[in-house]
Specification:
181 residues; eight-stranded mixed β-sheet; alpha+beta
Length: 181
């Protein structure tokens, strides 16, 4: 994690990935997740089932960058709106919502959550990676997006809820898209 100005994105270490997205229907995508033994929570299932969750008929490639809230220059954390605004200002884009399942299918070697800490309510779980994507519904009880996690050797594609006041911790990981592939 980097906090000094010279160590804020893009001048800090990040993880980049090229992910192929699209080409599957929603039901084919769900079937592929099941075939790979990827589990989902109720929020993830709700997001996938919603009519606003759409898939592309055509395959395309996205360049993603994984960084922390601190890497964006927020040593004390930030709200979702602050994080998304800062990312946009420095040339990062929100990911299409359909990236979540495809990224989960590609990123099969995600490290286990080693924290040993009990899950704290209203915080991103240790070891999780949140995919920065457009929020489909402002309703506080509707999932805002996906995050990836590995728990006891099991890969998860999970949905999350967070209201506009939620402050993400500086060590929380996010994935954005880069336009310069």
């Amino acid at each position: 994690m980097c906090f000094e100005n010279e160590n804020i994105y893009p001048n800090c270490s990040v993880i980049t990935r090229k992910i192929e997205v699209g080409g599957l229907t929603k039901s084919e995508l769900i079937q592929k997740l099941q075939q790979c033994s990827i589990l989902m929570n109720a929020y993830g299932e709700k997001l996938l089932a919603d009519d606003k969750f759409t898939t592309s008929d055509t395959k395309y490639t996205l360049q993603t960058v994984e960084l922390t809230v601190g890497d964006l220059g927020f040593p004390d954390g930030a709200t979702t709106a602050q994080i998304f605004k800062k990312a946009s200002e420095i040339g990062l884009e929100l990911c299409p919502l359909e990236l979540g399942p495809y990224l989960r299918l590609e990123y099969l070697d995600q490290p286990e959550d080693y924290s040993g800490n009990p899950l704290q309510r209203n915080q991103a779980p240790s070891g999780s990676i949140t995919i920065a994507s457009e929020i489909l519904c402002e309703d506080d009880d509707f999932p805002k997006g996906f995050y990836l996690r590995r728990i006891n050797g099991v890969l998860w594609l999970r949905g999350y809820i967070a209201d506009y006041l939620h402050v993400w911790n500086p060590n929380d990981h996010f994935i954005f898209c880069q336009t310069d592939i």
